[in-house]
Amino acid sequence: MRIKEIVSGLICNSSGFFRDNKLRPLRGVLIFILLTLLIHFGFRYWVTLDYFPIGALIHQAYSVMIELVLNHSLWFIRNVLHYHPTLIDHTMYFDSAGYIAINEGCAGLKQVLQVSLLFLIYPGPWKHKLWYIPLGILLMHATNLFRIVGLAEVLHQWPDYWKFSHDNIFRPLFYVVIFSMWVLWEEKFARQGISVDTSSPGKAADVKN
Fold first, then answer.
1. Contact 154, 161 (CB under 8 A)
2. Predicted confidence band of residue 35 (pLDDT cuts 50, 70, 90)
3. Would you state the pLDDT for residue 190?
4. What does the pLDDT look like over 99-149, one tens digit per residue?
5. Mean pLDDT of all residues in the chain?
6. d(Cα 1, Cα 24) in Å, to the nearest integer?
7. How far apart are CA 77 and CA 84, in angstroms?
8. CA spacing 20 to 30 A to 38: which of 20, 119, 122, 123?
9. Residue 154 and residue 52: Cα distance in Å, rounded?
10. At residue 14, what are phi and psi to the nearest 5 degrees?
């Protein structure tokens, strides 16, 4: 009997958590973390299946993304940083004896799919999703370019910190940008078209179509 009371109490408390408007920001963060983890580990599992059933399409998309990232980052490195690496088979070799290889892991396709799926799944009006998701794709590409160009600068100025910068600064940068996009979405767009009837406490929100 005691166990039944404990379970009943937990259910009541959790339902209050999901209804309390004061806890909406915390609920949103938890949902964001859950979706991000599901997409991340789901993608990693999909890799083991060779992207079945659209493996050929995904590999073709990787090839396109690799060329875009390579050409755009190389332009910045040559014209903004004024470094002139030797390009051999998608790898930039620098005078400092270091190199940056643009492969599938550097293409940014995973992050493009991740931000697209996140905002496809996350609640909000489709009239904004139709432009917000393409904006997210562009931001993921721009973030990836910043990462490659930044690593080129680190390779020249602080070569001993290249691996640290790659793993601990530039790799998490994608998630900083995605989280910032989510915060903006949650604060500005997610609840547009939703009105809350506050005439009685805890009453569910009504969606205006």
1. yes
2. very high
3. 84
4. 999 999 999 999 999 999 999 999 899 999 999 999 999 999 999 999 999
5. 85
6. 33
7. 7
8. 20
9. 37
10. -70, -35
The pTM for the full model equals 0.80
Under 8 Å between Cβ of 161 and 168: no
Amino acid code (one letter) for 195: S
Instruction: Please provide residue 91's backbone torsions phi and psi, each rounded to the nearest 5 degrees.
Output: -125, 130
Residue 55, both tokens = 């493996």
pLDDT at position 202 is 46
What span, in angstroms and rounded, lies between the C-alpha atoms of 158 and 155? 6
The residue among 188, 192, 175, 167 whose CA lies nearest residue 136 is: 175
What are 64-85's pLDDT values in tens digits?
Answer: 999 999 999 999 999 999 999 9
What's the token pair of residue 37? 């983890």
Q: Can you read off the two tokens belonging to residue 68? A: 């875009």
DSSP for the chain? -HHHHHHHHHHHHHHHHHH-GGGHHHHHHHHHHHHHHHHHHHHHHHHHTTTTTSHHHHHHHHHHHHHHHHHHHHHHHHHTS---PEEETTEEE-TTS-EEE--GGGS-HHHHHHHHHHHHHS-S-HHHHHHHHHHHHHHHHHHHHHHHHHHHHHHHH-GGGHHHHIIIIIHHHHHHHHHHHHHHHHHHTTTTTEE---SSTTPPPEEP-
